[in-house]
Amino acid sequence: MPYQPNHIFKGVVTKVGVMRKTATVTVERIFEHPKILKEIKRHKKYLVHDENEVARLEDKVTIIHGARTSRRKAFRLHSIVSRDTRKYPDEPIPSTIAEPSLKPRKERRRLDSVPAAKEESTQGQGQGQGGVLEALKDLKDSVVGLTR
Fold first, then answer.
1. What is the chain's pLDDT, residue by residue, as a tens digit (148 residues)?
2. Domains of the chain with bracketed CATH
3. Which end of the chain, C or N, has fewer beta carbons within 10 A?
4. Which residues lie within the region annotated Disordered (predicted)?
């Protein structure tokens, strides 16, 4: 499924704790059959990114489509609508859900690119653009001198 901004579904958490930072949410949809005009229920399971692992079994949640986290996981936990207080009396529903963190590789690239840009700008200021141009002219003169 390509990226769908603002694609929000409501569902029930059916599996949690098997994979780190992942919950399985079952989303049910009801539609009317076009020929027999009868209501039909269909459901689909989605793997959902749960950054702080706050989802619990049988929570009613909303999920939102976002950037793909893995091969099968493109949704992330948006909010927890309700929780069974008899099963989890000590755990209140969190008011905010954390955004997914950057992958370490991408974060490292982002951090490495900032100092590199600063070094380039300081080198350009120290030598000026003339230093690079002069080096290119010298190289051109030496190549032209070899061909004559």
1. 666 667 899 999 999 999 999 999 999 999 999 999 999 999 999 999 999 999 999 999 999 998 888 999 999 999 999 998 888 888 888 878 877 666 666 666 766 776 555 555 555 555 555 667 777 777 777 766 665 5
2. 8-100 (2.40.50.140), 105-147 (no CATH)
3. C
4. 85-134
